């Protein structure tokens, strides 16, 4: 078969993961919630730094819709909302830890 006729098979699983976690801040958000036990919106925003309020809100909503985090609203004034990992989110933490270790070993 000629090179021009060869088809590269895509890995659907990796493609799906990339679509779900491909947001600019999602991996970092999961890191802070999972490893730093940061649960409040304001804390997340301070730790991430450059993220806008609207971007953080959007990324959190998408992570919640995809089942990685849960949101608990205390229904208080002033508003108090906390985020935590779901079982799916917790199951991703070893992958994130491996990525962190790989980065420390290969990117520094």
UniProtKB/TrEMBL annotation:
Where do the HTH hxlR-type domain residues begin and end?
Answer: 11-108
Which Pfam families does the record match to this protein?
A: HxlR
Transmembrane ranges, per UniProt, are none
Quote one Gene Ontology molecular function term: DNA binding
Query: Which keywords belong to this entry?
Result: DNA-binding, Transcription, Transcription regulation
Metal-binding as UniProt keyword: no
**DNA-binding keyword on record:** yes
SUPFAM superfamilies named in the record? Winged helix' DNA-binding domain
Name this polypeptide is given:
HxlR family transcriptional regulator
**Natural source organism:** Clostridium innocuum
